[in-house]
Amino acid sequence: MKLTILGCYSGTPHGNKNSTAQVLEIKSHTFLIDCGEGTQLQLRKNKVKFSRIKHIFISHLHGDHFYGLIGLISTFRLLGREADLTIYGPKGIKEIIVLQLKLSKSWTNYNLIFKELNSKSSELIFEDDNVIVDTIPLDHRIYTNGFMFTEINKERRLNMNAVLNAHVHVSYYQRLKNGDDVINEKGQMIKNSDLTFKPAKPKRYAFCSDTAFKPLVKDQIKKVTLLYHEATFLDEHQNLCERTKHSTAKQAAEIAKLAEVGTLLLGHFSARYSDINLFKKEAQTVFENVILANDGKIIEFKNL
Amino acid sequence: MKLTILGCYSGTPHGNKNSTAQVLEIKSHTFLIDCGEGTQLQLRKNKVKFSRIKHIFISHLHGDHFYGLIGLISTFRLLGREADLTIYGPKGIKEIIVLQLKLSKSWTNYNLIFKELNSKSSELIFEDDNVIVDTIPLDHRIYTNGFMFTEINKERRLNMNAVLNAHVHVSYYQRLKNGDDVINEKGQMIKNSDLTFKPAKPKRYAFCSDTAFKPLVKDQIKKVTLLYHEATFLDEHQNLCERTKHSTAKQAAEIAKLAEVGTLLLGHFSARYSDINLFKKEAQTVFENVILANDGKIIEFKNL
């Protein structure tokens, strides 16, 4: 499980400060989360294979989170894409994209599927054998969702020492992982629990951008491996936070503390601050385990 | 009069190859012509003052010519713009922009004026004392206009030797420029034609992108100072040109020759060619005075 930050700045993109976009590799999926203007260039720069992206999650319809989507959809078409693309985002996103495709007479040659969201409660929006994705309703100026990505680890882990000692043939390993009891090479029935450990604890990633301070969110993101929480401003600008419905670094840390998360990742920094280390410093007055997003940064979940 | 190329590549932007956008400084105006994704970043990189842009001309609704427009409009808002912004473009452009502003609840705090185009004949779309802009109907897969920018030079130029010899007081110079006869310091009436030259020949810039080979265009662009004509492909790919309604470098040169233009500027190059000098070489088999667009290139009309 790996997260690549393509852009982590709020508002207008400039210089090397890109608008929000992230790539989450989880099991066999490559999920794109938000898609600010220029995301396709950031994907290339970070060597993400375009063809691997089959699901795009858009938190809300402010430009710095989705103005790059229509360009990416068009580029997929120019590259001859055939695989389905599913877009999860607020109601209205389909109308925006389809209108532009219609006026440019540039219908995609692949299936473009929209899952429009308008619920104010958390919803399960994606599920397969390996991953589930739920929305995290947030509190912003317009309808906004965060997203919770959860691994499903059904397979038990082999206790290799015990397996070898019990003389179980390699062809039975998958059945052991599935939780079955097996017969060893001497014809003895061996109990599964003697040869395996519980499945690995599933890792979870919570993406929360953009939002005002919303302590209620803590129940849904309890003990996630990694919480990305927006921190647009520092505490000194709390008045701006209230007006714009964003969070300070300190408030993000308070959410991390309430939810007892593993690691807090801060981003969506306002361009007014020249030193983003101030965000870390402020957050750490409340919650110790803080890292800062940065365009191009890669976070391996096995290291968390 | 000065032209800055912000982007001159066709299709999907990548690396340092930007989608079509140009800035034309003409008299006191700073006109933006087309606005592919990332144009706002190119404007910053080329140090164009955002506040000077009051008119944006969009040739057609293919993404590589306008996907950067909504982002620029939003950034103007974030920067606190108050001046009117007028957008000239195909019918439908207003719906695209307004829908996105509506869904993001981000109305501009400045007047956003749309002049939607749907005529198949050339139209005068902008006029003041110094400049006129006409559309140049082109032949592409969707409704497309080029634009003709013409300086208006009404003022006669002073023949300074004659003016000094005739003892005309400096306070009469403007009246001389206006074409009036004047009385000199000795009380003698002096004919304007003895003291002035004709107004400078107005410079004209024709922007033609995207279009199939359309010889009919020659009448409208006859003898322009500078013709930007798209050259998406080389002659070896004429089959692609026909299918996609683009032009080869050779065809662009044929238009330049037919129209007897001063200089031909080629752009909108397909990314399939690694050496764009081939475009110049091919065009020069037909028309000698060819220059190549390049992102960041500046063309001063006084040097043409």
Short recap of the structure:
With 304 residues, the first copy, chain A, is α/β, with parallel strands linked by helices. Chain A has helices at residues 39-45, 63-66, 69-78, 93-103, 160-165, 173-177, 192-195, 238-244, 249-258, 277-283, and strands at 2-7, 21-26, 29-35, 53-57, 85-90, 112-117, 124-127, 131-137, 145-151, 157-158, 182-183, 189-190, 196-197, 204-208, 226-230, 263-267, 290-292, 298-300.
How would you portray this structure in words?
2 copies of one chain form a homodimer. Chain A is α/β, with parallel strands linked by helices. Chain A has 2 domains: 2-153 and 200-303, 4-Layer Sandwich (Metallo-beta-lactamase, Chain A); 157-197, no CATH class. In chain A, 23% of the residues lie in helices and 27% in strands. Chain A has helices spanning 39-45, 63-66, 69-78, 93-103, 160-165, 173-177, 192-195, 238-244, 249-258, 277-283; strands at residues 2-7, 21-26, 29-35, 53-57, 85-90, 112-117, 124-127, 131-137, 145-151, 157-158, 182-183, 189-190, 196-197, 204-208, 226-230, 263-267, 290-292, 298-300. A 7-stranded mixed β-sheet of chain A has the order 6-5-4-3-2-1-18. In chain A, α1 links the parallel β3 and β4. Chain A is globular, with a radius of gyration of 22 Å. The relative contact order of chain A is 0.14. The interface between A and B is medium-sized, with 33 and 33 residues.
